[in-house]
């Protein structure tokens, strides 16, 4: 009888642990995970901090850059792609580290079809008009056929690292016409201004995974837009002397150079 009671108690305990783990995982799937602060990157803190396999454990959808600012990072369906400064796209080893990245598990909370001619600014205005609030972050996935996409990538840097606003003076710009692909992006709220840049930040990856980059401009009229509401934020601040020595009272141009609707 005693054995039976212990068995029942054990099953109940296991059930409670299981439910707790399940709830925690559920919460984490709605969190935005960020490596460092964007202002650290703007001030030239380009050494890789967190390995891609760790970032992937926090999300299957994201963007950022790599150790020494070696190109633009795209994470789509849990796979990391690197757009080098020469425009070539390759898959990346999961031990490579990133100095700045954002990732979440993409779960669409809202979906709608775009069927009007839109440029980057009007696309942002359209999405803005559908959002329940502008005070939380959103992950945004847009799949469609683009009549035009203008992207950039950045070359690998050597120490002493220049500010991002200096690096982008030598950025590579690529333009594509009539191309199918996906926009992997985020919209950050004004209330998170000190840790990121408010507004839209999007990277593009072509459907055949051979072209991509940080989006500077676009034109499209046929796409499916999926939006993931985010209510939790996990920020990984680097344990490095370079980061500890940064002076955030110095202002730095954001270097994102994207067309903004505001
Ligand atoms: Zn970018």
Describe it for me?
The protein is α+β, with helices and mostly antiparallel strands. The chain has one domain: 60s Ribosomal Protein L30, Chain: A (2-Layer Sandwich). It is built from six helices and 15 strands. It has helices at 2-28, 38-42, 52-56, 120-130, 164-167, 241-245, and strands spanning 31-35, 50-51, 61-65, 72-76, 79-83, 89-91, 97-98, 101-104, 110-114, 118-119, 138-153, 172-188, 199-206, 212-229, 232-236. A seven-stranded mixed sheet has the order 6-5-4-3-8-1-15. The protein is globular. The relative contact order is 0.22. The model has no long low-confidence stretch (mean pLDDT 91). Bound molecules: zinc ion. Residues 63, 72, 201, 203, 214 line the site of zinc ion. The site of zinc ion has 5 residues, from strand 13.
Can you lay out the helices and strands and say which pair or pack?
Elements lengths: L1 H27 L2 E5 L2 H5 L7 E2 H5 L4 E5 L6 E5 L2 E5 L5 E3 L5 E2 L2 E4 L5 E5 L3 E2 H11 L7 E16 L10 H4 L4 E17 L10 E8 L5 E18 L2 E5 L4 H5 L17
CATH fold-level assignment? 60s Ribosomal Protein L30, Chain: A
Q: How many structural domains can be distinguished in the coordinates? A: 1
Please bin the fraction of helical residues: 10-25%
- In this structure, how is the largest beta sheet organized? 7 strands, mixed
Q: What is the number of helical segments per DSSP (H or I, 4+ residues)?
A: 6
CATH C-level category = Alpha Beta
- The CA-CA distance between the termini, in Å, is 70 Å
Numbering strands along the chain, what is their spatial order in the largest sheet? 6-5-4-3-8-1-15
Ligands bound here? zinc ion
Low-confidence stretches: none
Strand content: 35-45%
Shape: globular
Number of β-strand runs: 15
The CATH homology group name? Hypothetical protein, similar to alpha- acetolactate decarboxylase, domain 2
N-to-C SSE string, H for helix and E for strand: HEHEHEEEEEEEEHEHEEEEH
Mean pLDDT: 91
Please state the second-level CATH architecture: 2-Layer Sandwich
- Helix and strand composition category: alpha+beta
Rounded to an integer in angstroms, the radius of gyration calculated over CA atoms is 20 Å
């Amino acid at each position: 009888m005693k054995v039976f009671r212990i068995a029942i108690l054990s099953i109940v305990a296991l059930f409670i642990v299981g439910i707790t783990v399940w709830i925690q995982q559920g919460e984490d799937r709605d969190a935005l995970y960020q490596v460092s602060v964007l202002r650290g990157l703007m001030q030239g803190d380009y050494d890789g901090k967190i390995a891609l396999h760790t970032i992937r454990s926090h999300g299957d959808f994201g963007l950022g850059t790599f150790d020494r600012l070696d190109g633009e990072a795209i994470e789509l369906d849990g796979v990391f792609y690197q757009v080098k400064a020469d425009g070539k796209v390759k898959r990346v080893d999961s031990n490579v580290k990133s100095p700045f990245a954002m990732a979440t598990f993409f779960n669409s909370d809202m979906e709608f079809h775009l069927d009007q001619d839109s440029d980057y600014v009007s696309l942002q205005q359209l999405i803005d008009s559908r959002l329940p609030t502008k005070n939380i972050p959103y992950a945004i996935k847009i799949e469609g056929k683009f009549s035009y996409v203008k992207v950039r990538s950045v070359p690998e840097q050597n120490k002493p690292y220049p500010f991002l606003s200096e690096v982008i003076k030598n950025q590579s710009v690529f333009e594509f016409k009539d191309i199918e692909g996906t926009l992997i992006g985020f919209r950050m709220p004004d209330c998170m201004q000190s840790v990121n840049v408010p507004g839209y930040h999007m990277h593009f990856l072509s459907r055949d995974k051979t072209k991509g980059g940080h989006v500077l401009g676009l034109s499209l009229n046929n796409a499916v837009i999926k939006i993931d509401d985010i209510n939790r934020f996990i920020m990984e601040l680097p344990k490095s002397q370079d980061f500890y020595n940064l002076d955030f009272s110095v202002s730095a141009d954001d270097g994102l150079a994207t067309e903004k609707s505001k």
